[in-house]
What does this fold into?
Amino acid sequence: MKLIAYDFDGTIYDGDSSLDFYKFCFKKKRIYRYWPKQFWYFCLYILGLKTKTEMKEVFFCFLKDFNHTEELLSEFWASHYSKMKMWYLTKDHSHDLIISASPEFLLEIPFKKLQAKDLIASAVDQRTGKFLKENCHGEEKVKRLKEKYPDVIIVEMYTDSSADLPMIEFAQKGFKVKKDRVIPYYEYQETKLEKIKHTFLTPKFIRFVLVGCLNTFNGIFFSFLYSFIIRNATFAFIIGYITSLATSYLLNSYYTFHDKKLSISKYLRFCISYLPNFIIQLICVAIFIDLLHWYKLIAYTIAAIIGIPITYLALLLFSFKEKK
It folds into this structure.
């Protein structure tokens, strides 16, 4: 079977349908009581302590406050179907597969109205918000697709998100959707702002910063211990810094980058990736403390602001090799 696949939110729908539906429901009922738990699970997800499925399940728990979700959904799409993008509406949908991380119950009305071939989305109980399967996102989309259509051929895949790279690679052709523009996926050039956003405004970078804070404490702790054995304070600091890198390597591998394949060569690349950070710290200390006699905390803060993003990029490209 040959199909043409489309992501939904941001691709053929102008916005995020789940967030729009939440705002629509909020106007019906002030569902404040779920905010603390939703915020807490969002933080846990950012910290890597909860999965996206667990976080989204708590997000959709507000559905418990609504008895007639069918009527609610009909009313929602009566006012929001106009957000469907015109470039898509003018197409023939007889071979279209809409594949989305949004709840299946939320997309059924536009799917039927479009008369598309099929819909694969997150299986969510519309009365409780409970996820019946894993969130249909990233690699899970390809998995769900193969389960339903073992011999399927995806002729084209359209998406606005880099999270759909597994589907792009699975398809014969891939397209990036930017507003109403459709561009061959690998020809699209991100703006500088998009590159910064996709690199640093991520849960992975936040986890890296947290590990860095812990590593700073470890460096101070080990340097302090070595100072009782080594009389030269600078040498004790260097040995303590190197020792703390071993702990940092383990934490970043397992916690930040979710890479459990440890090796000596990777550890050496990890240490080399930290050389710019180490040099930046020494230069900042030399300039702002020794030369300009600034307050130490200011010098350390400047070093961190410059060093953290540079070290993170070095780890991405050199140590953990996430070149995409």
Remarks:
- The mean pLDDT is 90.
- The longest strand covers residues 96-103.
